[in-house]
Amino acid sequence: MRDELRRHQSLGQEEPQIKFNETPFDTVFEVGDELGSGQFAVVRKVVKKATGEEFAAKFIKKRRYATSRRGVTRANIEREVSVLRTVGGHSNVIELHEVYETPSDVILVLELVSGGELFDHVCARECLDEVEAAAFVRQILLGIKHLHSLHIVHLDIKPENVMLKRRGDSQVKLIDFGLSRLIPPGHVVKDMVGTPEFVAPEVVNYEALSPATDMWALGVVTYILLSGGSPFLGDTRDETFCNITGVNYHFTDSSQCSRNWLALTSRNLFIEDPRALRIQQQKRNNGRYDLDQGSYFKNTSACAKDFISRLFVRDVTRRATVDDCLRHPWIRGPDGDDVDLRKSSCISISHIHSFKQRQRWRVSQLEQRAVELVLVCNRVTRSVRLAISQATKMKRTIETRYDPNDMVTSSVLIAAEMGGVRELSELSMVRGFPNLSNKQKETAAHVAAGAGHIEALSFLNMKGAQLSAEDQRGFFNSEIFNSTHLPQKKKLRLTGNLMC
What is the residue range of 47's domain? Predict the structure, then answer.
């Protein structure tokens, strides 16, 4: 992370900058059911024993070492806490109450937001007109306005992070500030951060982030809310990014993303005829919808389309601000006795159902990829782990590149050491591949070059390896690098800290 909140990290454990409450958590709270989970965090319902008050506790797994890939860095945890403390006190933003710390976790005690995702609430309705949709978007805007007034940029505005306070209530809450940044005027912050489907062109192009970045994401959320289609989603992440940087969207009969998703899903399910998939979908949903029925924006008002188009602007200086949006007729409503054209528009809930199903499908794909990665890592490191186990039994020590605290990097380096191009290819799904490094700053390119594995080195080069990088000792085997006659490196695809 390249901003002013970034703390210096040594090769050892990070020094805490903020002191948290170290009172044993279970003496103060009774821990209940799990409400949700992420890669390194679990959210549980908790009850304060002294008062009976209910809260949501976010248990964040701490990173034990700066070089480890397990857990969240101390700097990132402290940044999230700092942001939450700054933005508290607004009706459309989740409230942080307390922070506790154990040897393994930092626990954020948050306001309990139990109404579920906004889109789930919408799906439970038979019909939603634009007046109601605009009222929800207005609440999101008010939350964003509060953040931006404090120079906080959320950077992960998406449907999953827009919740309802409680069931049957229409009060919206913005949640999950794990990626948020403090960006004061005049400060330049660049980072590859966010969810690909919702990021703005400046994120993809690695340009300065700003409050305008949130406004683009709000445009995507509004587009989905009104249509059930995602405006920029492509078959691949690269295609999605191309659509975003080219501002390639439209309000035609069926959104590009839905057609792309249909083709992608049919390929993954090994269905040659997409019509067969549509029949399956209709059966699953009791014939309630078909991806080709009608127009996604058939009943959408011109005012709503104008609102969205003012957010999908590449130039951040011309993109609508939060105040511009709050003044827009679609949000503000008609003046005087003018007819409210928004009431004549009824949003197709079936299309929102379609979006939710695509969401669940993508989550299942991510879970499958995670399982595949674990299996590959176990297979690649099996022989080394066995050798370590045998040496331990014989009270001997051996030198290996295996680090139990960083299984992924270990697997990449071990695969390079044995010249396993197939294994390296399987591991290339990892973000940052192939420039992951261990504590000695050795990369897969160093290891492959040192072992003389030219084919593996060529593969790493084609994947964007930094061949000029030195390790911590300043070692760089230029002789091997220069003698390999590697092919011209292809133009690199965009990589970074974008979540899949």
Answer: 25-111
Q: Are 426 and 433 in contact (CB under 8 A)?
A: no
Say which CATH number the domain at 203 has: 1.10.510.10
Q: Tell whether 464 and 393 lie within a shared domain.
A: yes
Please check whether residue 209 is in contact with residue 189, taking contact to mean a CB–CB distance below 8 angstroms.
Answer: yes
Residue tagged active-site, from 33, 105, 129, 156: 156
pLDDT of 199 reads 96
For residue 162, what is the enclosing H or E element?
Answer: strand 162-164
Does residue 253 have an active-site annotation? no
Tell me which residues of the chain have a pLDDT lower than 70.
1-16, 66-67, 123-127, 252-296, 335-372, 429-432, 471-500
The answer on 438 and 320 residing in a single domain is: no
DSSP notation for 111-167 = E---S-BHHHHHHTSS-EEHHHHHHHHHHHHHHHHHHHHTTEE-S--SGGGEEESST
Locate tokens 């609508």: which residue?
320
CB 32 within 8 A of CB 55: no
Instruction: Report how far residue 355's alpha carbon sits from residue 345's, in angstroms, rounded to the nearest whole number.
Output: 19
85 and 33 belong to one structural domain = yes
User: Is there a single domain that holds both residue 314 and residue 400?
Assistant: no
Instruction: Report the alpha-carbon angle 39-40-45, nearest 5.
Output: 100
Q: Report d(CA 432, CA 434) in Å as an integer.
A: 6
Cα(364)–Cα(303) distance, integer angstroms: 36
Do 174 and 125 share a domain, yes or no?
yes
CA distance 446 to 469: 8
CATH number at residue 63: 3.30.200.20
Instruction: Decide: 325 and 296 in contact? Cβ < 8 Å.
Output: no
Does residue 285 form part of some domain?
A: no
Q: What is the pLDDT of residue 363?
A: 53
**Predicted pLDDT at 93:** 98
Q: Within this chain, do residues 300 and 372 fall inside the same structural domain, yes or no?
A: no
Same domain, 325 and 342: yes
Q: What angle do CA 297, 302, 305 make, to 5 degrees?
A: 65
pTM above 0.85, yes or no: no
**Counted domains in the chain:** 3
Amino acid found at 379: R
How many residues does this entry show for the chain?
500
What are the residues whose beta carbons fall under 8 Å from the beta carbon of 415, sequence distance 6 or more? 380, 423, 424, 427, 444, 456
Q: Any known ligand binding at 61? A: no
Are 105 and 124 contained in the same domain? no
Q: Which helix (H) or strand (E) holds 172?
A: strand 172-174
Q: Does residue 352 sit within a domain?
A: no
